[in-house]
Structure formats: C-alpha cells, structure tokens
Amino acid sequence: MSIIDELKWRGAINQQTDEAGLGELVNDKAVGLYVGIDPTGDSMHIGHLIPFMILKRFQLAGHRPYIIIGGATGSIGDPSGKKSERVLQTMDQVRHNQDCLTKQMEHLFGQDGTFKIVNNYDWLSKISLLDFLRDYGKLFNVNNMLNKEVVASRLEVGISYTEFTYQILQSIDFLHLFTKEDVQLQIGGADQWGNITAGIDLIHKLKGSDAKAYGLTIPLLLKEDGTKFGKSEGGNIWLDPEKTSPYEFYQFWFNTNDKDVIKLLKYFTFLDQDQIKKLETSVATEPKKRKAQIRLAEEVTEFVHGHDAVVEAQHITKALFSGDVADLTASEIEQGFKKMPSVTVSGDKKNLVEWLVDDTKIESSRRQAREDLTNGAIRINGEKITDTDAEVDPSSAFDGKFVIVRRGKKRYFLVRIAK
C-alpha cells in the first residue's frame, strides 16, 4: 500500500492539488515535504500534532520530512481561524518558543538525520521591503488574495496589512524549500489550503508551470458529537508535561468515546489495518474492556512522552481505581491528584478527628468525623483507619509532601504539607 493510499484509509486527506501527480511522485522517489508551525506558544497541543503525525508517517515510509519553525511568520501572525488580530509577541518570546518547539520536534522525529528543522527567519529576514514588493508582491493579485478563505472570513471585522501579507510570506517559504532543498510537498490543516495553493502558484510563476510542487491538507478532526477535537473540560491537552502531565495525557485518550476511538487510532497511532480491525471488533463485542481506548492511550502517550510515562500513568490509574495509593511516589501523587480537591496544612502530628475537622475541613464536625472513622469510611494514604484516637503523621509517606484522604468509596482529597 502506498503512503497516499494509507492516508486515505486513515481518513487523513482532505484535499490534494494534483492527486495523480502526487501519487506518482511518492511512488517514484523519496520526496521532500514539510509542515510549518509558528512559535506562538512554547508548546504544541494535540490539535497541532495532527499534521505532524502525517509527516511522521512519511518519515517512516522513507521520505524526507522538513519542519519550518516560523521565527519570521510567528512574529507577524497567521489570520487563519482568528476573528481578530493576533497580539504581536516580542522577539525574545518568539525565540524562547522556537527553542521549546524545536525540543518537542526532536523528541517526536528523532535526531538520526532523517528529518530537518529550519527557521524561516533565516531567509525572510534577509529580504528588503523593496525586494519583497518587486520580487514577490508584484506576483500576487489582490483580488485572488481577498478570495482566499482565511482572508475572506476576516473582511467583515477587518484585517491588517501585516496579516494580509502572511500568505505571501508562507508562499516564499515553499519556494525557498523547493529551490534549496528539493521539497515538493507541503502539508497542512484544512484551513491552510489557500496558503498552500498560493505557494504552489508562486513556484509555477517563477520556476515554470511544469514545476512539480504539490499540496495536501488534512480534514478538520471532529468528534462524533460534532465538536472540535483536541480539548478537555480543562482546556488544551498540551505536549509539554509541565502543562499537561503524562497521567492527564494518558487519561484523555483512555476516556475516548467508543464512537470516536477507531477514528483516533487511525489518526494518532502507527498500528496497521489488521491491528485496528481487531480493536474495532473489540469495541463492538466487548466494549466494557475498553481495549481500544487502552491501546490508544498507550500508543500516543509513548510516542509523545516515552515508555516510562506509560508505565507511570498506568500505575497511577490502577492505584486510583483500587484505592491502593500507598505505593505511589510523590511525583505520581502530584500527577494523579492534580485536579482533586486539595488543601494545604502544617506538618505537625495531630489527632486525626481534629485534623479532619479543624485543619483540612474534610469533615464538617467532630461527630461526623468519629462516625465516619467508626464505620470504616476514612482511609489515610490507602490505609483504613477506625480508631478515633489515632494520630495523623504528615511526614510518614510521600516524602512528607502529601497526605491522601479517601472518604467513602470515591471521594479523594489531596492534603499538601506546608514547608
């Protein structure tokens, strides 16, 4: 199966500029291709990851992937998908974001020389205003630019000349890589179609109408309920483990709806058709086992964070499900209890009843605390406590940083110990 046929099977192609020509090209040679990303933030989220998964598939198929970190375009702002002008970042912030994104890309694509990261600041910053207008601006028809979807969607509220020229800058990127690196294919989200075709038009005008330059876009990924994929109730799911912990990352994929899981397995994993077909069968015949969701969470978490992160996430998941939290590390506690009710108290030993009422406010009264203890409803760090005269010692577990209280079957509280 060719790489293009595989992408079709995965439902990962929205539009191609020349389907027959691109299909022939990728079968004939190792093609140079690229995806661009502007350093508007210091981390990608999983929505950004979608075109890079396609790029990774080309890499694994023996092609030559390039990644443009938009040091120049990121300082300008892409109007795509925005209802108002972007707030311009300082160049120091842009450079910081570049460094962070570069590290993420190196982790995803490896450092074995099979892919290359470039920065469009290296060539766009060398073009003078007069050269920009004479050599490139003259080749772009304003009427055509206004008809591009990303621009047309902004005409009612207005668009600055700065963002209006973004498609010219991105076109120059494609021309530069086509000329200098023999890159013939640009990949992007569905909203990038206008920018991609503008780049191909520029190449044809300067290199001849028979120049072999192609574009491919990816569909907007929607969930079964029609909402946009990529966010949880708490916001974006980030690749940066400081923004979204590996456990939270794992749980996001594990909690995928049955109706969406096969689609996401096709998009976000490198499992083959037979493997995904077996998982599809399991969704239909034994959905409660959640085999497809588990495999999805394992595959994507390992790709983004590594195998150790998968093991850690599964350890936390098992401990929270069983209630056996005593073997968790302080780091795992930080991840697993991040969104649970929490309070900070002193590290002094204290009578447990008083501590539950006065310090943590977990119990509403001493009478209720004694009743819950007597009935076996209170667990401290995984251990059931029934003695109303017992003391709590915050230094006894988790490096003295936390005490985990479980009240009833499912209500957890994270008690942080002040230092």
UniProtKB/TrEMBL annotation:
Compartment annotation: Cytoplasm
Binding site for L-tyrosine: Y34, Y166, Q170
Motif interval(s): 'HIGH' region: 39-48
This enzyme's EC code(s): 6.1.1.1
The keyword ATP-binding is assigned to this record: yes
Binding site for ATP: K231
Keywords: Aminoacyl-tRNA synthetase, ATP-binding, Cytoplasm, Ligase, Nucleotide-binding, Protein biosynthesis, RNA-binding
Top-rank EC class of the record's enzyme: ligase
Catalytic reaction(s) noted: tRNA(Tyr) + L-tyrosine + ATP = L-tyrosyl-tRNA(Tyr) + AMP + diphosphate + H(+)
InterPro entries tied to this protein: aa-tRNA-synth_I_CS (IPR001412), aa-tRNA-synth_Ic (IPR002305), Rossmann-like_a/b/a_fold (IPR014729), S4_RNA-bd_sf (IPR036986), SYY-like_C (IPR054608), Tyr-tRNA-ligase (IPR002307), Tyr-tRNA-ligase_bac-type (IPR024088), Tyr-tRNA-ligase_bac_1 (IPR024107)
Motif, 'KMSKS' region: chain positions: 228-232
Alphabetical list of HAMAP family matching this protein: Tyr_tRNA_synth_type1
Assembly and oligomerization: Homodimer.
Family per similarity comment: Belongs to the class-I aminoacyl-tRNA synthetase family. TyrS type 1 subfamily.
Protein's job: Catalyzes the attachment of tyrosine to tRNA(Tyr) in a two-step reaction: tyrosine is first activated by ATP to form Tyr-AMP and then transferred to the acceptor end of tRNA(Tyr).
Protein name from the UniProt record: Tyrosine--tRNA ligase
The encoding gene: tyrS
